[in-house]
Amino acid sequence: NGEVADEWIVSDADFVRLLGAWSLFRPLPWRYRLAFSFRGGFAHPLGRSEGIPVDQRFHLGGTGSVRGFRESAIGPRFPALAGGEDVSSDVSTGGDLAGSYNLEIRHRMIGGLDWVFFHDGGMSRLFHQEADLAAKNPDELLQRGRLRQQEELATSIGIGLRVKTVVGPIKFDLGIDTTKLEHLDSINGTRDHVLIHFTIGDF
Hints:
The chain is 11% helix and 47% strand. The chain is built from three helices and ten strands; from the N terminus they run βββββββααββαβ. The chain is globular and about 60 Å long. Residues 83-88 and 130-143 have low confidence and may be disordered.
């Protein structure tokens, strides 16, 4: 599906957004089941606008997209600066082009209870804002620090439980960023890097 924002419909910015999703569910031998979902989005400024509003960009990471990551942890970011010094946290800008997938292997245990192994991935890029800042406001670019684009696909793995209910499956997942698997050797590392996700619905 898609949407268009324009000053003629009382919008503060002019842009077009396109969204798409595709899901696949297949039975496998020995009571296993495959579930796969892909989502993608693209946004482009129009007319008077030179970028996409932050709240209309695509933010990946967390329960609703790539598990094993915190909310909006995936994608382009600016260093968070205070008085010109790094305060060790980043600010997510969101992207105008993004895609993510969720792959699950499910197996029925008893009744309406399933266990799940999952593998997620996602990537988000911002193409317009960086060029606008560099060309039209270099002072702001220097003050905030250079935009850090996502260079590689962010992936995670994990396990979970599914409980079938009348309102849909209740999902309880434990996920970890695959680049942090080495930290599982440490009790403290496990607590710091394994994230818990809870929601209702398939994807």
